[in-house]
Amino acid sequence: MNRLDTLSSHLTANVNSIVPCAAVQRGYTRAEVAKHKTEKDCWVIIDKMVLDVTTFLPDHPGGKKAIMLFAGKDATEEFDMLHKREVIQKYTPNSIIGTLSD
Ligand code: HEM
Fold this sequence. Notes:
Structural class: alpha+beta
Largest sheet: 5 strands, mixed
Strand order of the largest sheet: 1-5-4-3-2
CATH superfamily: Cytochrome b5-like heme/steroid binding domain
Number of domains: 1
CATH topology: Flavocytochrome B2, Chain A, domain 1
Radius of gyration: 19 Å
Number of strands: 5
Strand content: 15-25%
Bound molecules: protoporphyrin IX containing FE
């Protein structure tokens, strides 16, 4: 086997070892997000992202209530008036569960 063949088989092996993982995001409709509107199950939309903020609620520096006003809804406008988008990655990166599909 020459060097090119060896390299080629390494690359093939690596490509074949890529498997779907938990980080693969799925799409949700606005109607689906709207069902998650309680303190025990709270989703919000920010831009095209769908966030499950249930476990973040007690840790939110702006308080639980501020987020609950937008439970199940699109909070983009109000969110952007109060925060930089980076706070999501900084405080609660795992809350991003998917993207909006409609
Ligand atoms: C989902 C992810 C969210 C994260 C990571 C987050 C994070 C934060 C942080 C770090 C602060 C302190 C101020 C700052 O450093 O910017 C804050 C304040 C605040 N947040 Fe959020 N927040 C989130 C969602 C929301 C939503 C959906 C609302 C409702 C529109 C909201 C309303 C507020 C309010 C009213 C304050 C207080 C602002 C003030 O005292 O002037 N937040 N948030």
